[in-house]
Structures are given as structure tokens and as C-alpha cells.
Amino acid sequence: MTMTIRALMGACAFGAFAAVAGAETITVATVNNGDMIRMQGMMDAFNAKYPDIQVEWVTLEENVLRQRVTTDISTKGGAFDVMTIGMYETPIWGANGWLVPLNDLSADYDAGDILPAMAGGLSHDGTLYAAPFYGESSMIMYRTDLMEKAGLEMPEAPTWTFIREAAAAMTDRANDINGICLRGKAGWGEGGAFITAMSNSFGARWFDMDWNAQFDTQPWKDTLEFFVGMMSESGPAGYATNGFNENLSLFQQGKCGMWIDATVAASFVTNPNDSTVADKVGFALAPDNGLGKRSNWLWAWALAIPAGTQKEAAAKTFIEWATSKEYIELVAEKEGWANVPPGARTSLYENPNYMEVPFAKMTLDSILSADPNNSTVEPSPYVGVQFAAIPEFAGIASEVSQEFSAVYAGQQTVDEALAKAQAITNDAMEAAGYR
After folding, report:
1. How many domains, in total, are found in the chain?
2. C or N: which end of the chain has fewer Cβ atoms within 10 Å?
3. Which three-class secondary structure state does DSSP give residue 52?
């Protein structure tokens, strides 16, 4: 009897979420990035506030997460009640009716506080379908001591030419220091995201205005040849299999002079508990080539609810908590302002406590400088900076990124990879009816 009364009292506490009754378990699929791991360590606060919702975590490597959630939602598998997805999937899946609209979040949640760049990328026809846990662009993180030792000074907005020269000057093979660490790992959201963002600054694009693949053009050849040349000179051995987490580990161990990657990594490389170089890190905008486009991306890891879940109310309760101002303050209280999830809320960048964090302004500047509606030098028919927001892109780009990674591993030439990428892309687009 006592348990029944407690369950009923707990259910009443949800107010708008009165459909939740008893001890309900929701399954949350997420990526094994540091901020999500940190969230799992904060669950005591959630459990204290919502004792009748239990959370089970499925934490996966990025490429595996994408495969699992895509398969589950497209087949209506029902394995998850909350999914961690991004700016690529959200508008497409929202348009398909695969996600629960988040247009009825509570007044306290303050959805209007979400940064416009993030809300726009996570909406379809003006309806929000995923709430950003954190938002990011990409930027340069570099060792200030090694830059000084090389006799160089990092500009706030450097060129790729400077970065390559600096990487060579900072490389010290005898002491296991690589001048630069970059993603080479296959996967459209791993190495594929990096090389696509980089290609924008070289004047490349995935498609022309008639949806013809553009890998047979000089800008793509220039991009890959520059990348491979720079990484051969100054990158780590085996970079063809390095993604975000591998490069983070290398940087924290003091083995990278520079790392160009997600702005969210700044809190990890400057955390003295994890990083051996925490007090020697500087930040700069992602490089350009003087063509008017920088090589930074725009992304949000966000929480969404698959349509058809039987636990929609509990799932919304969890999403409101995990992406709230309250959660940001909880992390700040326990682990300091430098470790709160960045890039999602306007109010965070109006908070003087947060703006004292060394990388806060550079993160915001990077996010604001990425334009998904105008990401390429030549006109392109797609929305997206490091991806094209069409359903076919993930499959095509996964294959193309495998061809590029084979170049990085020394298994084929740049020309061979680009010819294969051109054929893969045009064949897929023709089969899908674009051409």
C-alpha cells in the first residue's frame, strides 16, 4: 500500500506530465563524449527531483550511435525513448514524422533562450524537434609554449598556409610531439565532417546547383593534397583511424601542437584533472584561404523523442531537465563554469561568470561565423556546413569518407579516391532521382 501511495504522489508531482505513473524506465541513447559522460554522473540530482523516472543509458561511439539510432527509428524498432541526434538528422526526421515535436515545453524551460543558430538547425517548418544539449562549431586549440618555442605567434584568424608552417615548426618526432592532430577516421560525422568543412575554405562543394558531384574539380584535389601533405609532415602515425576522442587523448597527453576540432573540446583540454597541458592552451578561429569561407562547422548534439514511444511524457521531463538552465547551473556548481555544456543558450553568453572562461568568446564567435545557408564559395543547392541536409547524404558521405581514409592510410592516391567519390556520389544521386 505504501508503495502505491508513493507512486501516486510521485505521478501527481509531474503536473503537465501526469501521464507518468509509477516507476517508469526510459532508455536514452547517447554518444560517448565527455559532456554526456558527465551528465550520467549528475543523475542523483535528476533522481531526487523525479524519483518515479529511472534512466537506462546506452552509450556508444559516435559512428555506432548514428547507425543504431538511424536503424531503430527508420524501422520503428522502439529500443529508445530518447535519442542523441544532431543537426543533420533532426529536420529530416522531423519532416518524416519520426520525431515528437517539442513545441509544448514548459514556460520555465524558456525555449526562446536557445541560440537562434541552434534552434534553426534543430527545427523543421519552424517546429523544434530536438533540444540542444550542447552546441558547437570548430576552432584551433594550440600549445602556447610550443608556438612560442617555434618563434611564432598565432593570429586570431589564421590561414591554412600559416597553420601548415606552424605545424612543421612545432613537430618534434624525437619527443613524440606532432605539430598537428586532425580527424582522419572514416564516417560522415567524423573525418568526413572535418574534410568537408576544410574543403569549404578551399572553394570546394559537394554538389553544383544541378546536384552534380564536384569531386572532379581542382578545389577538392587541392583540399585533399594539402591535408595529406600537412599530416604526412606533421601529423601522428595512424591518423587515418583517429577521430574526436583519439585526438583529444593525444592533445591531453601533450602530443599535439595544434588540434582543430569541436569547440566543446576546450573544456577538456584546459581541465587540469585530465590534461597535462591545461595551462598552456590558446584558441583561434578555424583557418581560411582568403576566399571568404573559414573551415569551421556548425553542430549540436541534441535530445529527441522518437515518435511511437510509450513514454513520451517521461522522455520530455528528462529532456527538459538535461537541456535546462538549471542543469547548466548544476554543472557549474559541481565542476565549475568551464565545464558546463556550451553553445546552446543565449543566457550562458550573457552570464559574466561564464564569459570569464578563456574559450567562451572564441566558441561563440566560431558558432556565429558558420552559416549553414551559405557555406560554400560557389553557390550550392544544400543547407549545411559540414554536411548536405538531404536524406541520402549520410550513406554517400560514409562511403566517400572511407575512400579518403584509405588515402590517409597510404592505400590509394588522392586522384583514385576522388574518382571513386565522384562515381559513388553521382550514382547515388541518380538512383535517388536528383539527376
Report:
1. 2
2. N
3. coil
